[in-house]
Design a protein that fits this description.
CATH topology of the largest domain: formyl-coa transferase, domain 3
Radius of gyration: 30 Å
Strand content: 15-25%
Protein name: DNA mismatch repair protein MutL
Helix content: 25-40%
Pfam families: DNA_mis_repair (PF01119), HATPase_c_3 (PF13589), MutL_C (PF08676)
Structural class: alpha+beta
Number of helices: 20
Largest sheet: 8 strands, mixed
Number of strands: 23
Bound molecules: adenosine-5'-triphosphate, magnesium ion
CATH architecture of the largest domain: 2-Layer Sandwich
Shape: globular
Keywords: DNA damage, DNA repair
Family: Belongs to the DNA mismatch repair MutL/HexB family.
Strand order of the largest sheet: 5-4-3-6-2-1-7-8
GO molecular function: ATP binding; ATP hydrolysis activity; ATP-dependent DNA damage sensor activity; mismatched DNA binding
CATH class of the largest domain: Alpha Beta
Amino acid sequence: MSNRIQQMPNQLINQIAAGEVVERPASVVKELLENCLDAGATKIDIDIEQGGAKLIRIRDNGQGIHQDDLALALSRHATSKVRSLDDLEHIQSLGFRGEALPSIASISRMTIISRQVEADAYKVQGQDEQSADISPAAHGFGTTIEVRDLFYNVPARRKFLRTEKTEFNHLEDVVKRIALSHFDVEVSLNHNQRAIKLWRAATDLKSQEQRIVEVCGKAFIEQSQSMCFEATNLKIHGWIALPSFSRSQADMQYFFVNGRIIRDKLVTHAIRQAYQDVLYHGRHPAYVLFLQLDPAMVDVNAHPTKHEVRFRESRMVHDFLFRGIHKALADVRPSDIQAESNQAEHNQGESSLIKNTLDLTPATVPNRYSDVQTMANTSGATLPSVPSASGSMQSTSFGRSAYTGPTKQSHLALQVNEQIKAYANLSRGLSETNHLPKDLPDSNDIPPLGFAVAQLHGIYILSQTAAGMVVVDMHAAHERVTYERMKQQLEQGTLVSQPLLVPISVNLSEKEAELAEEQSELFSELGFELDRSGPESLRIRQVPVILARADAEMLVRDVLSDLISYGNSNRIREAINAVLGTMACHGAVRANRNLTVPEMNVLLRDMENTERSGQCNHGRPTWTEFSLDVMDKWFLRGQ
Ligand SMILES: Nc1ncnc2c1ncn2[C@@H]1O[C@H](COP(=O)(O)OP(=O)(O)OP(=O)(O)O)[C@@H](O)[C@H]1O
Ligand SMILES: [Mg+2]
């Protein structure tokens, strides 16, 4: 080959571009479907043959392509979607590169037929603009694009195609994602002349949930929580699975930014962090979430396949997602579940095993149960609670000045111990009748988790509820209640720090050392004191007492690496929570410890008032409800 420089032929340029965006039939389907949506289609029909290798035909009822533009559609860098850099920075459409059709045309036999309103239909065939052959055709309003024999002229690529079934599965995944991204669009999918899916336009919540059931399965929707969270210019809404519906793989995570599906490590990190406290180790959350924000706040021009985006205010977005999802998870309370279960009974009249994992609309915990709690309190049962933050918790300021000597540590430790022993110290000599409401006026006055009836096998609390009965794992439940209290106390009070006898020297890159200096406020809020001891070194002088035994150097390194990647880090909090979690676990009532009925009722009321009380700290459920319907079924009553 001579070393003289030559201009590449058009087709080769397009084929190289195709290498980036068209990996397999599924990628063609993604590009074509995005074009349909950009054209405002409300109905899309997809016909596939042989996993897409032989034929992909997609028809839409969108605005169509002008007759004079048909050849241009096959030309590289030709698009109707952006005209200037300013357009690009405020892009609302899914496409903007003007590359998909010419790329696909260069590696397949492609035909476009299109008709605009008040115009005739035309057809274009060809590899590129120059070879485009335009002729009249018959077609309704909209566009059909047919892609035959994908990779017929790129044998190296064809070899990478997997079996028909595998390719079709990939393709179906793409269609599902598009179906989730635009509920209002009807989509049908046929494979080898067989109807595979038909999603009718879903305009109300019920039909949207039905679409989610078809994509994610029934269990997901039954065990998820719908959520919506807004801040200025930002909105996140959708469905998040309750922690008890976690997955072994990160395979049920749908995240859309302004209608575009994306995979983004910042997003994944923020969501993981929100689930951190309630997810069983090594499990992955499931979700279908839609983030809406001003298009100017996100750069979609980050990758040719547009799977990745860059948030201009990444830290703010991270924080927003974390807060929204964390709050939604914290809002799941027993009271919500009861409302749902009652409704389910009325609506369907069918039996249902009401798990503590039903889909709920967030509600506040009603105050009407406080009477019961007061009754329990006044009659002698002490709540197994930590002293209130305003009471005995010392309040010092965070950070450098927080250290006031070792007494504080023992003070904190004492309080935690008190908390841990609280149940053990509960008075045993209580008269049970004092704590059982004597007459229950009507079912509206029964708290969501009902009133305890008995303890089973030293492990479970059996409680009668308005809808039936609840079985509570008392260790798991108490563990969560204790843990949430300790966290709350820590947040309201002070994180006590202690200086290290010998400061720890940490060698890092200059960038990390600078960042550590910049973020010294953040570190001191979390009880760390760091000194820059050289261009590439730091000294850790002080750590929170609760982390005295943790690997401070590793924590600091990990926090800095998080800050570099995500602009945010929760590691120190996580480490503190892990210690609290262990304390709570050891401090929670153990199996085979007899609880009196009043003690059990106190625990039930505590659960109702505690965030995330549906799961223990390890993500296991803490309680399950059986409705009367279910029980009637067991005994064939009323059948
Ligand atoms: N189904 C369709 N309905 C109406 N117009 C279409 C359709 N598909 C493509 N077009 C027109 O053809 C043009 C080229 O499409 P192509 O997908 O190649 O580029 P793009 O969508 O503009 O950008 P990208 O390469 O990022 O997808 C589009 O800008 C659009 O005007
Ligand atoms: Mg496009």
